[in-house]
Known about the structure:
By secondary structure, the chain is of the alpha/beta class. The chain has helices spanning 20-25, 68-81, 91-99, 185-191, 193-198, 203-230; strands spanning 3-9, 28-34, 50-53, 86-89, 104-115, 118-119, 136-144, 151-155, 163-166, 170-173.
Amino acid sequence: MTKTALIIRHVPYEGVAGYRMPIEAAGYDVDRIDVTDPAFSSLDLCCPDLLIMMGGPMGVYEQDRHPWIPCQMRRLALRLEAERPTLGVCFGAQMIAAALGAEVYAGPHKEVGFHSVSVHADALQGPLRHIAEVPVLHWHGDTFTLPENVELLASSHLYEHQAFRRGSNILALQFHAEMGLDPRFDAWIEQWPESVIEAGGDEASLRAAHDRLGPSAVAAGQAMIAEWLTGLSIG
């Protein structure tokens, strides 16, 4: 029987990128839906064997501006309660945190650019060992309190909460180890040039870092996701 994976895309230029390869290699039939799709509001998020929620420029707390956020959150909470395999990246990770009862809020700094995260000692035996000491892309300004009953996996010099898991099936990643070879990176810079500057960088340096560090970041990210997928419990 074919395993199903559903990607939730919050904006068109933030897709699954480098993570698609290990997901498909693990035998999943991958589908995608945009939150702007009229069918999204009635979709049962507990159905797919694997749910992947990607990033976006909005904040979880901007529910008045984006009515689909509370709609998605209610259905996500049901999925998490059932411990169905779920991956959240950046905004997707913040959605997982919020659905588990954490507070998501605007942080004091923009974190934009390539640098490594510090993988905590207990997590070095698991999937995140692949990204230890590997510079990966960061692009966010929001952060979150740590939900109850989760394991913090990684931190950075700017934000303590970079990755967490609940059991083997729920993984939240604040950083973008899927990005580094995807041409949509150009759209990120075009959409948010002020974020690069606010983070203390400049476009030329960020593009150079992307060209230099992107391939190794994606390779590490793909290895991380591949290993995580092998440990899932799909009932």
